[in-house]
Amino acid sequence: MNLNTSLQKIKGVGDKTAEQFAEAGLRTVGDLIDFLPRKHEDFSEVTPIADLQPGKVTIRARCESVSTRIVKRGMKITTATLVDSSGKLKAVWFNQAYRAQQLKDTDQEFFFSGQFEFQFNRYQLTAPSCEKVSDMPVQTDRLLPVYRQIKGLKTQLVRKILAELRPLMTMLPETLPSRMVKSEGLLSRSQATLGMHFPDSPSDVERARERLAFEELFQLLLASQYNKQANTQLEGWRIPFEQAVVAKFVADLPYQLTGAQRRAIWSILQDFENPHPMNRLLQGDVGSGKTIVAGVASRQAASHGFQTAIMAPTEILASQHAETLQGLLSSHDVSVALLTGSVKGKARQLLLESIAEGEVDVVVGTHALIQDTVEFHKLGFVVIDEQHRFGVAQRQDLLKKSKHLPHLLSMTATPIPRSLALTVYGELDVSVLDELPAGRKPIETKLWSPNSRTQLNSLIDEQISLGRQVYVVCSLIDENFANDKKSVETEYKRLKLVFKNRNIGILHGKMKPDEKDQVMRSFAAGEIDILVSTTVVEVGVNVPNASVMLIENADTFGLSQLHQLRGRVGRGAHQSYCYLMMSDSKKPSQRLKEIERSQDGFYLAEVDLRLRGPGEIYGRAQHGSLNLQVATLGDTKLIARAQVAARQFVETDQDLLQYKELAEAIKYYQRLTTLN
Question: Of 63 and 658, which is predicted with more confidence?
């Protein structure tokens, strides 16, 4: 038996079980060994019956008596009396009649692990796992691994099969250089795997996780290093940096650039001069002016005969970018065109011809840009807005529309903590816009309890009377009676009754794209006073006249998302407000207090990372389909160690091919993130 052996050849795995494993992506012995537990439950401490407290427990006892009876609907209930030197206890199993046969030998000692609880006017052990003391425990008397649920299979069976594979786990090939394992003070691959599946103590789990998490992060960061290295070998367009042209363009802007914008522009234009393509991430807080940065770079590209393609996730956002850039670039003889699915017939054909002949300098569009019918004359610069909403393949399709790889600028409005950015976007150079444009009024943020709803309604009505508009964001589309969150439909009906003389619109993800665009256009045109929406407005068109953002059940959102939603207002000259309505009248959480007092998206992202972990931030900004099993992106110290190790590996020019397993993992991560 080896790691490539089919699971079907393992004792206890029949055709059906093998099929169920396969549906979960587990086909070989190696796959199952790498199927790591998501957590551990501690049943390692054996407690005398007399000392038991409610909760998860393990006892060592004999079975004094056992019987099975059938109740209504054919359910079989097996009841046993368990006894040790300190006392007696009832144990109950449902539809596990085989337990009676298992426990018939009253002289045999067993380990019982399960939930000790008060049921039917007595304390009992409910559905415990049971194993002979003389056997090596798999389901009892240990730190019990808990695995991701596999449809149709019980966790106990997974543990039993893994126990069969335990000898093989002692001989796993090492996947990291031996010198690195030693210098980092890590467990071997075998020790770490055994420590996850069969730990003797919590410290075993901790050390196993450290080794396996380090390995994942090292692989990811090493792939980034190789991608960066490979990028320098790619042939790109060299676009000279003409400072006089840029300086005049910046001077003609109707407002002053922030220091962060100037630094980002300088970095981009420096990258343009390199013979290899730029691969840069521009991350900026909501309203920080990312579009202007792209506009300045587009102006420079156009002055040397290069075209720019800007891809946005929605038509309405693309239209907004096109309008903004048109206003900035038209006076400098730079032509801007909009290409979306709505441009059809003769107009579309004429536009495609103009793009192909180089008559259009800047093309702003949606997925329509990557269609086969779209050809560029000389594409030198590509901008992907809200880049995490596009797949790797989509980005690459756009890059392929050029003789040489164009320079790539990816933009995101999700503030990402530095540790996270370095990991998820490790192969990119990163520019950060952490300053808001001058003249922006801070958004007043206030927490509200449901008891103050009437007062809040008055404030909202007052804003509408002044000619302003309001967003109301809810977390659900349909009413779920098992959940007290506000649904969009319910909130829409309520607001229609409260604000009878106001125009109220509704927007959610189940609507067709054309319907969503129409609603947003109506709101932007001032035809809707209150827009009730799901979080689909999070990335959307700027409506400078919108001055109020009300978020229902704010305590159910993460900080980063709340901040992103807040950024939908405060885009104009008027004072804007963000009202956070809590689910109940309880004391607000630390998270909500933080967003009430701070408007710094990067600070809030760090707080979210600390309080909630990276799941939310990472889920919203994931690169390709990166799935880390063990590592947590919140472990900044481990990330730092892995970064140093990855750089040293590359700088010392080590031969990756001598590490077969490592090389395969690197190839996987490289495919997710590579430019070409």
Answer: 63
CATH 3.90.226.10 fits 45-141, yes or no: no
Degrees (nearest 5) of the Cα angle 598, 603, 605?
110
- The C-alpha atoms of residue 523 and residue 518 are separated, in whole angstroms, by 9
Cβ contact 548:499 at 8 Å: no
| Token duo for residue 382 | 């590509």
Dist. CA 413–CA 386, nearest whole Å: 7
Report d(CA 289, CA 438) in Å as an integer: 11
How many whole angstroms separate alpha carbon 310 and alpha carbon 269? Answer: 17
Residue showing tokens 């840009």: 369
Paired tokens of 264? 């980002």
Q: How confident is the model at residue 640 (pLDDT cuts 50, 70, 90)?
A: confident
Q: Are 168 and 3 in contact (CB under 8 A)?
A: yes
Round to the nearest angstrom and report the end-to-end CA distance of the chain.
Answer: 40
Residue with tokens 């300190």, as numbered in its chain: 86
Mean pLDDT for the chain? 87
Is 444-598 the same fold as 45-141?
no
The helix (run of H) or strand (run of E) holding residue 603 is helix 601-612
- 283: which DSSP letter? E
At position 453, the amino acid (one-letter code) is R
205/277 Cα distance (integer angstroms): 44
CA–CA distances in Å: residue 557 to residues 14, 100, 427, 602: 45, 49, 30, 17
Q: Helix, strand, coil: what percent of the chain each, to 5?
A: 45, 20, 35
Task: Judge whether 507 and 520 are in contact, CB under 8 Å.
Answer: yes
CA angle 391-614-180, nearest 5°? 90
- List, for residues 105-146, the tens digit of each pLDDT value: 888 999 999 999 998 888 999 999 999 988 878 888 888 899
> Cβ of 35: how many Cβ atoms within 10 Å?
20
Sign of the torsion formed by the C-alpha atoms of 592, 597, 603 and 607: negative
pLDDT value for 386: 77
pLDDT tens digits along 386-407:
766 666 677 778 888 888 889 9
Q: Name the CATH superfamily for 253-273+289-412.
A: P-loop containing nucleotide triphosphate hydrolases (3.40.50.300)
CA distance 671 to 676: 9
CA 88 to chain centre: 50
At position 322, the amino acid (one-letter code) is: A
Residues 6+ apart with CB under 8 A from 251: none
Residue 78 falls in which region: left (phi positive, over 0), alpha (psi -120 to 50) or beta: beta
Q: Could you give the C-alpha distances from 260 to 263, 264, 290, in angstroms and in order?
A: 5, 6, 10
Q: What is the pLDDT of residue 538?
A: 60
The tokens describing 484, both together, are: 């007290």
pLDDT tens, residue by residue, 27-62 = 999 999 999 998 898 888 899 999 999 999 999 999
> Given this structure, which CATH class describes domain 444-598?
alpha beta
Element (H, E) at 134: none
- Cβ within 8 Å of residue 43, ≥6 positions away: 56, 57, 58, 113, 140, 141, 142, 143, 144
Structure tokens at 538: 């999070």
State how far the Cα of 466 lies from the Cα of 445, in Å rounded to an integer: 19
Q: Are 256 and 462 in contact (CB under 8 A)?
A: no
Fill in the amino acid letter for 306.
Answer: F
Burial 233-244 (b: 16+ CB within 10 A, else e): eeebbebeeeee
Domain extents in the chain: 45-141, 253-273+289-412, 444-598
